[in-house]
Amino acid sequence: MDxxxxxxxPEKFQQFCQALLTKEYPNVQCFPVAQPDGGRDxxxxxxxxxxxxFIMYQIKLVKRPxxxxxxHKWLVKIxxxxxxxxxxxxxxxxxQFILITNVPGTAHPDSGSIDKANQLLNKLxxxxxxxxxxxxxxxxxSSWDLKWVYPELxxxxxxxxxxxESRLSENSERRSDAIRSFVKHQFCQEQEVKFRQVExxxxxxxxxxxxxxxxxxxxxxSKK
Length: 224
Fold this sequence. Notes:
- The strands form two sheets. The protein has a five-stranded mixed sheet.
- It contains seven helices and seven strands; from the N terminus they run αβββαβαβααααββ.
- It has two domains: 5-141, Trna Endonuclease, Chain: A, domain 1, CATH 3.40.1350; 154-208, no CATH class.
- A hairpin with a 4-residue loop joins β6 and β7 (200-203).
- By secondary structure, it is α/β, with parallel strands linked by helices.
- The longest helix has 19 residues, at 71-89.
- It has helices spanning 10-24, 71-89, 113-121, 133-141, 144-149, 156-166, 172-189, and strands at 28-30, 42-45, 54-60, 94-101, 128-131, 192-195, 200-203.
- The protein is globular.
- α2 (71-89) packs parallel to α3 (113-121).
- Helix content is 39%, strand content 15%.
């Protein structure tokens, strides 16, 4: 299942990724959004000793991820911007680098965007990798509580689960508010039929054509 990360704005997507990271690493430092951070949207300290080595995270949202013709070329541009920032952080303790994005990767051996990206990431000076769309999807599958914090990411099966569990939960009012927020957002989104890959947009009702209807004609001569 793919989650609609593109429903979030860049700032909220960064906060979501930070929240996801706190589930995997206890010593995550989350930096404020929309501020100069030296390429560090978050860092995970690998220990509390004096050397303070850390994993450095950079988070990138693409609003139309499936419209990218070549994710590999997109990643090249991102790494050209981020590599100088990473090099400045290596002397300060950065021992790993992870780029997080909602762009879908491709799995073809050697020629797919994931393998090509790994070849580029290996040249950054520290062990590096990219978390693609599928990496985020699988991590969110088991993070049920985050879906209530970011209801824009909820899907149909999530709502079905919520309805089933609502009678068993003491937090039904909070969950109802989240459902209403989700339904309202989906209604606004589905007023238009979006063809993301070709970047066409049409209002749903405009796709229907009015056809004139008249009552059938009775042949009066057939009864004579």
